[in-house]
Specification:
The protein is an alpha+beta fold and about 190 residues long. The protein has helices spanning about 15-20, 160-175, 180-185, and strands at about 10-15, 20, 25-30, 45, 55-60, 75, 85, 95, 100-105, 115-120, 125, 135, 150. It has one domain: Sandwich (Jelly Rolls). The structure holds 2-oxoglutaric acid.
Length: about 190
């Protein structure tokens, strides 16, 4: 969520850096709830960058404007002229691979820019850290049991579902701080 005229931005990064998933078979569906355009700070991607391997990142904890939890950003500069804006209207969705280099700028518009990122993985993908994560089975059968299954919400703002979400988030943050295998990448 970026408020109107917010100075917050998302630095260039690959999601793979901080999800701790293996192998890198992970796609994020970014669902626009408001218009998402260059002036409001839409997501920008470097086409074809998912053919790269994991690139070096570093954490910048001293940037109050970054929207990423650890201020993660690519160590090497990106050629800004190669970037493509993912311009979306409410209800539109873009898909980016976990190795796609992407970012977003500040919101210079008079309205909110709001989107929801939904991470999709095949059930065969696992989390490499010690924390057991939860996930929602979107379709098919889970033959791998790498994740605890989240119960589906039964109603709008269902208290039980909010509890499931809080538990899922808490496991995610715990996992993100304990992925020793990922540290050398930063
Ligand atoms: O919402 C944004 O501006 C960035 C989103 C992002 O980095 C992601 O969905 O992976």
């Amino acid at each position: 969520m970026k408020a109107a005229h917010s100075e917050n931005y998302v630095p260039w990064h690959q999601d793979a850096t901080y999800f701790g998933l293996a192998p890198f078979e992970h796609v994020t569906a970014w669902v626009a709830l408001t218009p998402s355009r260059p002036e409001s700070g839409c997501v920008r991607v470097i086409p074809g960058s998912h053919h790269n391997d994991q690139l070096a990142h570093f954490d910048n904890h001293n940037d109050p404007l970054t929207m990423l939890s650890r201020g993660q950003k690519l160590a090497d500069a990106i050629r800004e002229e190669d970037a493509v804006n993912l311009v979306l209207e409410p209800g539109d969705v873009s898909l980016h691979h976990t190795l796609t280099v992407h970012s977003s700028r500040t919101n210079r518009s008079d309205d909110w820019r709001i989107g929801v990122g939904i991470s999709y993985i095949p059930a065969s993908v696992r989390h490499i850290g010690p924390t057991r994560l939860s996930a929602t089975l979107a379709r098919g059968t889970d033959r791998f049991s790498h994740f605890d299954h989240e119960a589906a919400p039964q109603a709008e703002l269902d208290a039980a579902a909010l509890g499931v979400h809080a538990d899922s988030q808490s496991r995610y943050w715990q996992a993100a701080s304990g992925i020793t295998e990922m540290r050398h990448i930063h």
